[in-house]
Give the backbone structure.
Amino acid sequence: MKLRYSLLLVWLPGVLLAQSLPIRIDATGGSASIDGRQVEVLADPEHRIGWADVRRDVYSARFKPSPVANLNFGFSTADYWARLSLRVNDPNTPHVLDIGFTNYTLIELYSVDSAGRVNISRVGDGLKGPNRREFPFYTFGIRLPSDQYQTLYLHLVSHYGQQYFPLTVWTEKAYVEAGSSMSLLWGGFYGILLIVLCYHAFIYAFTRERSYLLLCGYLVAYIAYECCRSYNRLPDIENSILTSGVDPQAVVTIFPVPIILFMLFYDYSLRITQYFKWFRWLIVATAGWCLCCVTLAHIYPVTQLSINRLAAWEGIPVGLIMIAVSTALWIKGVRIARFYALASMATAGGAILMMMQRAGFIGSETLLVKFGFNIGSLLEFILLTLGVADRFREERKRQRADELERVRQETQREAEHQLAIKQERERMSIELHNDIGNSLMSARLMLNRLDTHMLSPTEQTVYQQLTVTMADTYDRLRDIAHGLNAQKFVRIGLVAELHKLINVLNTTDRVQFDLLVSREADHLPPALQATLYSFATELTQNVLRHAEAEHAHLRVAVDKTSIRLSVRDDGKGLSEMSAPTGQGIRSVQQQAGMLGGSFVLKPLATGGTSAVIVLPLAGPVR
């Protein structure tokens, strides 16, 4: 027992003596970090304690040694005073006190030298112009007086609800070099964001893919939020929109914009509402929650509500929800969801690391922890870029597959339609030829049984006219039946059919026909071959009925752009014939006109008649 009291009596004065000794600064390596436990702090939740107060004994006695090494008091709206004594080994070298955090409205440094003289320096986002900071860098750096021994009083006012002020003493040269490197790092950060933004804007301009537009909107909102949150990273820009970042409510007001765009982008890109119908309501609820946070930020004074904590309440739940949703879609087999799940993990993980460090749960000062949110955001945008590109490729692949399927279905429907037409034509052809044709043939046979010698001259005339009419009707019916059956030209061809027609016509001994037809006629479309055959039948029948000719010529010529079908005879000529107003001639003229061609019927100077049909070709004959 006596031993314990003896050790206590030895340890307690040692601790008190150690705390009363000044902190020795030997910045020969360029910098020296100050252990927070060597610093005495005083919290001022009422924001009433001033410089004159801390010099009084009643407040001076309230300073207590910091319990933490990194001087992090988490989300606190209180003002803080810090007191420490320094001994600089080389007072002739300019030194800088670095407060390694940015979101401070006002930082006042009162330096008391060994003679009791007080030197005052002020920096902070709440100040305007060149007084805002002494060095154009990320953190607040304040030049120290050139005294070897000095007591420092640091007054920190943060209207962002964050009290985190790791202290480091630098030589001015080393601080400028380190600050320049950090500025270059931040320049690279914003440069990458702008490059990604321009890339997606360029892709959207050519593709009009909505995913790229939403990602551009999300990027613009995020960059605006970053500038608003830490516009002091661009300290040379004065009197611009970025200086609104000094208003702490702007952080909470701007932050919902990238949050909502983030959710809308994920919803459109992953089609989340197709899998989870409640997600659209979640977006509405998130917008309502963000509106509540914005309202709280504007109702409560910044001295009572931590803006940074409020921003964490807005963002972190959304990040965790998006991780869960995108991971669930990934598990469901949505391949592109893997990029979005990893992107959500990157940004939410970085934000959680940063917030836990700022809240005092993590004491690490590494770049990964301090700037976890920014690093996670860069990874997020890179992964989202890959995800959007993959989605665009999948969408194009799906569109091509849909187009091929549409073409296949249209081709199938067209084939079925053509097959139906073919079958209907064949059915009608068979019915006309077999049923009606047989009936006409039977009627002709019955007429032939009549004894014409028993008929009067008038009855014989009627008999002859009836016989000719029935023969013509039968021939025309047969021609129509053949024309309906255009598919036979696929098997036989127009050339062979025309030769067969001429052979039949020459058996009548009334007119002798000769034929000259181009072999390319067999390569015409079957329907066109059937039409030409119908024209040839009509014109040759017209010669048989009306021309009183001895010889006739049928010609079919095919060139690259047109088809020419002509029939010439040596008969009595058109002037002595009845006017060509029959149904057959009119039908030929109408059909030729419908096909974009022409039909000319005229007498020949040497006697006889010429009928010429010219039809255009849509393309070369194969």
Remarks:
- Residues 110 and 616 are 100 Å apart (CA to CA).
- Confidence is low (pLDDT under 50) at residues 1-20, 232-246.
- The first strand starts at residue 23 and ends at 25.
- The chain is about 55% helix and 15% strand.
